[in-house]
Amino acid sequence: xxxxxxxxNFFKWIQSGxxxxxxxxxxxMLAPLLLLLIFTYIPFLKMFQFSFYDMKYIxxxxxxxxxxxxxxxxxxxxxxxxxxxxxxxxASFVQLAMALWFASVLSFKVxxxxxxxxxxFFPYLVCGIAVGxxxxxxxxxxxVLDTVLQWVGFSQESLPYWLKDKSINNISxxxxxxxxxxxxxxxxxxxxxxxxxxxxxxxxxxxxxxxxNKFRYIVFPSIKTIIVLNMILAITGSxxxxxxxxxxxxxxxxxxxxxxxxxxxxxxxxxxxLASAMAIVLFGLILLATMIQKFGEWYFLGVGEQEAARTxxxxxxxxxxYEQQQRANRTEGGDGI
Amino acid sequence: MRQLNIKKNxxxxxxxxxxxxxxxxxxxxxxxxxxxxxxxxxEYATTSVMTFPASWSYINNFTEAWQKAxxxxxxxxxSIILVFVLFGSVMTGSMLAYVLSRFKFPGNGxxxxxxxxxxxxxxxxxxxxxxxxxxSLGWINSLTGYIxxxxxxxxMSIYIFIQYFExxxxxxxxxxxxxxxxxxxxxxxxxxxxxxxxxxxxxILKGVGTYNEYYAANLYLxxxxxxxxxxxxxxxxxxxxxxxYNYICAxxxxxxxxxxxxxxxCQKQIYSGLTQGAVKG
Lengths: 337, 281
Hints:
Oligomer: heterodimer
Helix content of chain A: over 70%
CATH topology of the domain at 97-279 and 287-306 in chain A: MetI-like fold
Radius of gyration of chain A: 29 Å
Low-confidence stretches of chain B: none
Number of domains of chain B: 1
Mean pLDDT of chain A: 80
CATH architecture of the domain at 97-279 and 287-306 in chain A: Orthogonal Bundle
Helix content of chain B: over 70%
CATH topology of chain B: MetI-like fold
């Protein structure tokens, strides 16, 4: 019984199909998964843990149970700050409407279209800090905005302090976010509109469809999903607004949104526990909004190839009714004989 | 017929009027910055913000801003960061996408969902506890630490890569395997070269994002003399320099120039990259 076994060859073994395959899967996923673990999931769990403690970054910590959470809801400056999200939700809907308008104009032949598109998109590429300075300058008393408004006939005295006056400053700041992201939204919409089969537009043109009808029956259905997606993103994004107030006013004069306040608590007063609880609460809200969105998508629009749950149910109901009627007809007919 | 013409002309008028207005509003704040950056201190103090400077050759503001904000160091650091972050995230992103799109194994769907779920977590909030981790790893004030943090693969680039992989027929992999290529070989020698457009797209999007990133950079690279980046160099202008807008505007313009150049050169890739990333993500 001496079957000759080939000497074990490590290189052959490692290159053989199955082993090589597994090795490849493991090594290729190692780095990305490690990064995901270290910078997302471990911090997330830690944050959850922190939210039950009274602690600073360094030093002793004390378990306080749910005290941080009750503080989030009872403190004047925490949960109340979410009210400001209203401004940003309105702003992002204005932004979507503008983006939709410009996208549907620019998707068809327009003289200098590329130029307009470029001008309106460029703000998206400006660094957040730079945006902050640009608009601090823009809104300063007697500077850019005031000068322009004086050209059209307003007097300096009648104009408010754009960043200090509490009745208007949140609108001023929300407007900067429209300035920055409208172009990006527009580019997304243009992409979606362009993905429509161009023969449809030609056919519509031959039939003499008006601009509005073209929009209503061809453009709109093709970008319905992306619009809904962006509306949901607008809501979750508005809950977690951070950058515009952080870089322009630093959260002064009643412009501190939820995250600006969280950031202050975490890194200035080092109330890490409270800040973590705030983050967890907001994350819960975002998750809730996303779940509602997923459900809505499934119910009203359908996922992927599948039709909307609403239509499926309606069709089922109709089919059932039809069958019942048929059966009734048949029995009626039977009685007749 | 005449009425139709009026309607049509009105439509064209509205179209161009809104386009011009949109563009003016988009560029006006930046244009004013450019104007201000070229003004001498006297001009800045005496003339209205909207009047042009007497001469466009006064560049003292730019040199001042460059020195005050330590921008030489900033550009060096940002270049180093960009090179490593782009290399790192393109490699990790494309490797992950290769595995997820080409191999069926238990956990494939789970991993996709883990990345998707991670993208829901608001990044700023996470920094509360990421800071603690960075601290315990000794990565505060470490360029390496910041680079590794920024390499964290984002869902958008993974999706862009997965989409590209799905357009490359698997028969190509199979025939390479038949010819005795290993799975590593398939990725590095066969697929990666074909992935070039996706790599360029991801590099541009990630590059712009990294170049403009200031929050984490400000938090983790605290030694501003040594570790300042282009984006965080602008923090220098808050505080006592906070109202010298002739310098500030010059600084802002300097930081904008690279992004503007990239935009002019790679407009098409930027547009298509954004669209691709958004369709699925």
